[in-house]
Specification:
Blueprint lengths: L2 H10 L10 H25 L1 H29 L17 H8 L23
Helix pairs in contact: 1-2, 2-3
């Protein structure tokens, strides 16, 4: 999945906490978010402190739910429950999530759905 497809999928599956997301979908969406924050940060610097703070606050609220959703779908791809996401609340221990996000997803379907890369290695073909 490329940058544009991942960004579209990120916003299309805004509140979809079920299913799976591939590594490429997660990291391309992450890059899109970082580029967006960079642009918003530059604009807010030009517009002043008050207006900039409001713009950044709105952007953070707009991106919060889809960011959690894609992180949970990424955990599902590695055959882990979305409850693992709660580790993000614990400093330093949350680095475990980075390891999980970088891992290759399970081949074929798992308990959270079909393989997002389409490789079906099930014995029921």
């Amino acid at each position: 999945m490329g940058f544009v497809d991942a960004t579209k999928s990120f916003f299309a599956r805004y509140t979809d906490f079920s299913g799976r997301s591939s590594r490429s979908e997660y990291w391309w969406a992450f890059l899109a978010i970082m580029i967006g924050y960079l642009i918003i940060g530059l604009l807010s610097g030009l517009l002043g402190e008050t207006v900039g703070s409001i713009i950044i606050g709105i952007a953070l609220l707009a991106i919060l739910l889809p960011s959690i959703a894609i992180a949970i779908r990424r955990l599902h791809d590695t055959d882990r429950s979305g409850w693992w996401y709660l580790l993000s609340l614990v400093p330093l221990v949350s680095l475990v999530l980075l390891f999980f996000y970088c891992q290759k997803g399970t081949d074929g379907p798992n308990r959270f759905g079909p393989d997002p890369l389409g490789s079906d290695t099930s014995v029921f073909n």
